[in-house]
Amino acid sequence: SVQEWLKEAGLSSKEMSQLDSGEPLVWVPKADDRAEVTLLAVVRIRVTPDDLRGMARDVASLAQRDEQVLQVGVFSDDPTPADAAALRLPDGDVKDLPKCKVGSCALRFPADALEQMQGQVDGPERANAYMARWLADYLAAYQEQGGEALAVYADKKETQSVAQGLEILMRKTDLLIEYDEDFYRYVRRYPATGSPGAENLFYWTVEDLSLKPTVFLNHMAIQGVGEGAGALVVVKQIYASHYMQAGFKVYAALPASDTDPSEGVYVLLTQRLRFDGNVGGIKRKALEDGTKKAARSQLKSFKAHAEARANS
Questions:
Q1: Residue-level pLDDT at 278
Q2: Got the DSSP string for the chain?
Q3: Phi, psi dihedrals of residue 91, rounded to the nearest 5°
Q4: Within 10 Å of residue 119's Cβ, how many Cβ atoms?
Q5: Is there a contact between 112 and 100 (Cβ–Cβ < 8 Å)?
Q6: Cα separation, 270 vs 291, whole angstroms
Q7: pLDDT at 101
Q8: Is the pLDDT of residue 49 over 90?
């Protein structure tokens, strides 16, 4: 049962009582790799898995309820720069972009983007327009080619591959692998492997995780209806403008009771982040704390919105 799994994960009887009263629990286990942080969280919500699938589709509404999310936008099925026209880069990024070149940039970009932006990103208007265009083109390539199109960051002398970072993180996500191996394979190999009924959403955010505000581009995959009693939502972070090589989240909604749907679901969150080589010490602690705060805020907001929507 879910309760047994939570106890095996180290939750005390007191924490289980807090959980059943509706309070989200968030903890960070010791990482086996200094470049990584793993976050685990759980909240009990008195809704059905189908309710949560519907909620996940409204990603912009959910993100706007998260106090860490400063801006958000959803890409259309055929991504264009207009889908990210509302994006406003932080002032520091606008100042840093004109200085960027291969091997030396305050933001994370692949080499071709760093070469193309020469002379094109002076001032907020041009910088924002460039970022909107680049995100749309990057996403379109990912939708067609999958991991082969993901960035190899060349902002430092030592390059870093988003695809390699995601592969490392996904191989460690036992909950997804054990719960639905077919869906795991689909997400990992997107778009090469089909998954009946799976839905895909793509969105960008600007988030404050206690250091520099960071631009993210995310691929959300929602498990098809009828593939089990629960629901799975996966979020692959396929771009981050600062600090991170890759990121991966799994939301699993599992029934609190095998016999009584009114008992609701436990929503389990597994989040894995892989930082670049320059994140350590105070920066790492700040990002860990910011990620924990964001997860707690997100689950509290998600619970309140889900239960209000289900009862309306």
A1: 58
A2: -HHHHHHHTT--HHHHHHHHTT--EEE-PPPSSTTEEEEEEEEEESS-HHHHHHHHH-HHHHHHT-TTEEEEEE--SS--GGGGTT----HHHHHHGGG-BTTB-SS--BHHHHHHTTTT--SHHHHHHHHHHHHHHHHHHHHHHGGGGS-EE-SSSS-EEHHHHHHHHHHT-HHHHHH-HHHHHHHHHTTSS--TT-EEEEEEEEE-SSSS-EEEEEEEEEPPTTSSSSEEEEEEEEEESSSEEEEEEEEEEEES-SS-GGG-EEEEEEEEEEE-TT--HHHHHHHHHHHHHHHHHHHHHHHHHHHHHHH-
A3: -55, -40
A4: 8
A5: no
A6: 12
A7: 95
A8: no
Q: Specify burial of residue 259 (Cβ count, 10 A radius: 0-12, 13-18, 19+).
A: exposed
How many C-beta neighbours within 10 Å does residue 49 have? Answer: 22
Block residue for tokens 């090589």: 245
Tally of CB atoms within 10 A around 217: 25
For 178, counting Cβ atoms within 10 Å of its Cβ (0-12 exposed, 13-18 middle, 19+ buried), the class is exposed
Alpha-carbon distance of 197 to 224, in angstroms, equals 4
For 301-310, what is the mean pLDDT? Answer: 82
**231: which 2 tokens?**
């629901």
> Do residues 114 and 105 touch, judged by C-beta distance below 8 A?
yes
Read off the pLDDT of residues 107-152 as tens digits, 9 standing for 90 and up: 999 999 999 998 899 999 999 999 999 999 999 999 999 999 999 9
- Mean per-residue pLDDT of the chain: 87
The identity of residue 206, as a single letter, is V
| Whether the Cβ atoms of residue 191 and residue 143 lie closer than 8 Å to each other | yes
Is 0.85 surpassed by the pTM of this model?
yes
Please provide the size of the chain in residues: 312
